[in-house]
Specification:
Layout lengths: L7 E5 L7 H14 L3 E4 L4 H4 L9 H12 L3 E5 L7 H4 L28 H18 L5 E5 L14 H15 L2 H8 L26 H27 L6 E2 L1 E2 L7 H6 L5 E3 L7 H14 L5 E5 L6 E2 L2 E2 L7 H12 L1 E6 L27 H19 L2 E2 L4 E5 L1 H9 L7 H14 L4 E5 L9 E4 L7 H12 L3 E4 L20 H6 L1 E8 L6 E4 L2 E6 L1 E7 L3 E7 L7 E8 L2 E6 L2 E2 L1 H19 L6 E2 L3 E7 L4 E7 L5 E4 L4 E3 L5 E2 L4 E4 L4 E5 L1
Parallel strand pairs: 1-2, 1-11, 2-3, 3-4, 4-5, 6-7, 7-8, 8-11, 13-14, 13-15, 15-16, 16-23
Antiparallel strand pairs: 9-10, 12-26, 17-20, 18-19, 18-21, 19-24, 21-22, 22-23, 25-28, 26-27, 27-32, 28-31, 29-30, 29-32
Helix pairs in contact: 5-8, 8-13, 10-11, 11-12
Length: 663
């Protein structure tokens, strides 16, 4: 995308909270720290419109101009996460209602129902005024809608949402008979005679019908994406600057649907050094939401996250630079902090910042300066290259997240499961894309689809075509056992997948604590989670089961299909041996698929491959603070030092060090 042919190093700033003297100091300090982009306006609705209908945006116009005069560009936000008191007070019908049917009061943020007609109307008015006022200003380079949709809240249970839910159901099913049949509502006498009888999944004596709960989550996700589309459409009438939203894998949104209507992807991350893969997976995923366009890290802490009730472990010195170099190398155009100046009030006073509330450098400040030096170091090579498309893809789906929220078994967490599986790929040194469920599969050789309870016909067709063209598709665990309505298949346990893979899923059951051992690829490991065990019907058995309830059956099979192969992984190997087994499986099928975009790198150090005009670039970053090494596959040059690097040599990296090698 690159907006201005530069790398952006930025922060969130709240000038409406400070006096003129502080603003002057802040801008001077931003320039000293190398900050070249600032995000403003996201929580300032009460400043912009202190009384209903009295809108004044002159202050923000002046700020954007003033920043630009000082060489700093602006991302402008819509302030709709924090409706003012005039909107909230005396209007409980406008407020968000949680799963326990508690109505939120004014304060904090996300306290309003974003589906209420009054909210949509007022949000459209303030958004249009902002877009008119600043949309064509020099220095405005992008827009952020709202702030972290559905971060603190999930599905609203208010009266407005109930009515919209009934309309949504009628549009989806057409007749109440079709809904009853699809959901199996004769169970527990849940049968409905009209759409307006269908409840929200609020308080109940036991668990709700799975279809009801899953569909309500999907309804909610669709509605928040529609709100984003509405805001974006208004902005585009007055501004050509690209639009994003600062999202996350953790929020109750369908990111693939959300970003379909936006111009570039961005995310917020507060992963600590104990969870490096949790940071990296976001980069590999958000790179894939808008193919060919750079993504932004819109928020990360320069040191630690914090609120009145908690705080996170601070980054060790040097780690922030490693994070930033990794992000830029993997496809980020911007690396931005929350926040610039520490809040003097409110619920996030303890949160890490670049500058303290009293205007002095914080514990993270020197690390911010290190990031700026690194930006100068790598900017030319980043801007002259593009991230290489991986040959290995890991399917990600927020719709799968919904299914696992409805049916978590023993508190399974979709993000945790995906990050753990991703870590296994990361540890093999294979470059990987994490791709949305609807992504095209051209260019890939190996596809993993774990933790996807419902696999659509459209996805099966696309993945089957990928296999017929020579790809290897590894399916599971916990994949394919549910229908689109979150019910159990009645033709066979995994329906069409079984026929494609040449297996019968003889049993599906939870293996935890059953003493079941799986043998495959020279490893033996305890098997766990809700599992499928197979009898081959044309497939070859690769992994066999010993002990437990189903000895002699298979948990890994493979079958040739067209030019490629379909692999079924029916259970999750656990423990250290389970990790070894899974990583061996990944390497085995990467070898079979002819995956070449991989490196012999020690765990804790990453290689980000990029491509230029007739050359390849490796940016190597130590992320664990221990140091590491990578074996160089062909003769190259160390871009930063100019020194030649010999084929087969082992390049050593120190604590949080980075190197750039050109082949």
């Amino acid at each position: 995308m690159n907006m201005g042919k530069k790398l952006y190093h930025g922060a969130a700033w709240y000038p409406e909270l400070w006096g003129e003297e502080v603003l002057e100091v802040d801008i001077r300090l931003m320039k000293e720290a190398g900050i070249n982009v600032i995000r403003i306006g996201e929580f300032a609705w009460s400043t912009m419109e202190p009384h209903e209908g009295e809108i004044d945006l002159d202050f923000f116009v002046r700020m954007i101009k003033r920043l630009y005069e000082n060489g700093i560009e602006t991302i402008m936000c819509t302030p709709t996460a924090t409706p003012p008191i005039w909107y909230s007070h005396g209007h409980p019908d406008r407020m968000y209602v949680n799963e326990q049917l508690q109505t939120m009061g004014h304060g904090s943020r996300q306290h309003a129902c974003t589906n209420h007609s009054s909210f949509r109307e007022k949000a459209a008015v303030i958004t249009e005024h902002i877009a008119r006022a600043v949309g064509r200003l020099p220095g405005l380079i992008g827009w952020q809608l709202d702030n972290e949709f559905k971060a603190h809240v999930a599905e609203c249970m208010c009266g407005t949402c109930l009515t919209l839910w009934h309309h949504w159901l009628e549009k989806r099913y057409g007749t109440i008979e079709r809904l009853n049949d699809a959901w199996g509502t004769q169970i527990w006498s849940e049968y409905y005679h009209r759409f307006d009888q269908v409840p929200q999944p609020g308080p109940a004596p036991f668990l709700h019908n799975s279809s009801l709960k899953t569909m309500y989550q999907q309804f909610s996700m669709e509605k928040i994406s529609e709100f984003a589309d509405e805001q974006a459409a208004i902005i585009r009438m007055y501004s050509d600057a690209p639009i994003t939203h600062n999202s996350s894998m953790a929020f109750s949104v369908d990111n693939e649907r959300l970003f379909r209507g936006l111009d570039f992807a961005s995310f917020d991350t507060y992963a600590t050094t104990d969870h490096v893969p949790a940071f990296l997976i976001n980069n590999d995923l958000f790179r894939s939401f808008k193919r060919g366009r750079d993504y932004w890290i819109m928020e990360t802490s320069p040191s630690f996250a914090g609120s009145l009730e908690s705080y996170a472990k601070p980054h060790p010195n040097g780690y922030l630079r490693a994070e930033a170099v990794a992000a830029y190398s993997l496809g980020a155009e911007a690396f931005c902090y929350w926040l610039w100046r520490q809040q003097r009030a409110g619920c996030e006073q303890p949160h890490g910042s670049v500058i303290s509330a009293w205007g002095k450098p914080t514990v993270g400040y020197t690390n911010v300066l290190e990031v700026e030096l690194a930006v100068r170091d790598i900017e030319a090579v980043i801007l002259s290259t593009r991230p290489a498309q991986a040959e290995v893809a890991l399917t990600y789906s927020d719709r799968a997240k919904v299914f696992l929220k409805t049916e978590p078994h023993r508190k399974l967490n979709h993000r945790g499961l995906m990050t753990d599986f991703y870590t296994r790929i990361l540890n093999t040194g294979i470059h990987r894309d994490v791709v949305p469920e609807g992504s095209e599969l051209g260019g890939y050789k190996l596809l993993f689809t774990p933790f996807l309870p419902y696999v659509s016909e459209e996805f099966i067709d696309r993945a089957t075509e990928f296999v017929e063209d020579g790809g290897i598709w590894v399916i599971g665990p916990l994949t394919g056992g549910r229908t689109v309505e979150h019910t159990v298949h009645t033709d066979s346990a995994l329906s069409k997948l079984e026929r494609l893979a040449g297996v019968e899923a003889v049993f599906t059951y939870p293996m935890d604590g059953s003493g079941t051992i799986g043998h495959a690829f020279g490893h033996s490991a305890t098997l766990s989670f809700w599992s499928s065990v197979f009898k081959p019907e044309g497939a070859t058995v690769i992994g066999t089961i010993e002990g437990g309830l189903t000895p002699g059956l298979a948990f890994i099979t493979e079958k040739a299909h067209g030019e490629g192969k379909i692999v079924m992984l029916g259970s999750m190997p656990t423990g250290d041996e389970g990790q070894h087994l899974l990583e061996t499986l990944i390497q085995h099928y990467a070898d079979e698929a002819g995956v070449t975009l991989r490196s012999h790198v020690t765990p804790g150090t990453i290689v980000a491959p990029r491509r230029g005009d007739g050359y390849e670039l490796w940016i190597i970053v130590n992320m664990d603070g221990i140091g590491g090494s990578v074996t160089i596959p062909r003769a190259g040059v160390d871009v930063l030092s100019g020194e030649p690097i010999v084929l087969g040599s082992k390049l050593e990296l120190g604590r949080y060090e980075y190197r750039v090698v050109r082949f």
